[in-house]
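Protocol check, entry for the methods section draft. Step 1: assemble the input record (protein sequence plus ligand SMILES). Step 2: submit for complex structure prediction. Step 3: store the structure tokens unaltered in the notebook. Ligand used here: S-adenosylmethionine. Step 1 record:
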Amino acid sequence: MKKNKISKEWIKRQRRDIYVRKSKQDGFRSRAVYKLQEINEKHKILKNGYLVIDLGAAPGGWSQYVIEKFRNCKLLSIDLKEMEPIGNSYQILGDFNEISSKEKINNYFKEKVDLVMSDMAVNTTGNKNLDSVVTGELSLEALRFAKNELKPNGSFISKIFMGSTFNEIISEAKSTFKETSIFKPPSSRKESKESFIICKRLK
Ligand SMILES: C[S@@+](CC[C@H](N)C(=O)[O-])C[C@H]1O[C@@H](n2cnc3c(N)ncnc32)[C@H](O)[C@@H]1O
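Step 3, stored output:
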């Protein structure tokens, strides 16, 4: 499919989408915020006072949710793209996997954190299989990053795609965390291969 055809369809779909309209009414920057809300309502991953890292945070819906709903959380938001500031969250512009980003993260917290959350995705190419493989690699890297950054018993959630890396992520998550489950939030588009892995209690 041609790129301008994809973007026309994307614009049409955005206009029809109730979560896009709701996010505008509620003052959130993206419809993705409802996925985090639904994950948290079911799996209770967030608490007041938590130290939280938001990987792939732009434009900032998930970070807004943490700042607005949970008191005294210390939040770090990182993305390859620039974001408008969000409350007192500390923002890093860059790749989470670069050494310089990891240094900034460790200098900021100076201790291990309670939750690493990742909604990271690559820019789509239009080739769903290729997109799901590359995003799968990103989820695996996020899981390995979380292993190093989390306190014992800390939690990790990540977007994952049904695809070739799915089983590898599940088996690595199971050997790293005491509880692992898969959840597709109701606000995640049905036609999307996206789900979320919810990992609790780092071993
Ligand atoms: C679906 S968006 C995130 C939406 C966000 N959760 C929200 O609520 O607004 C995915 C983001 O992942 C980011 N991303 C992809 N690879 C990344 C990487 N290696 N390091 C940091 N961010 C990355 C993209 O730039 C993009 O902004």
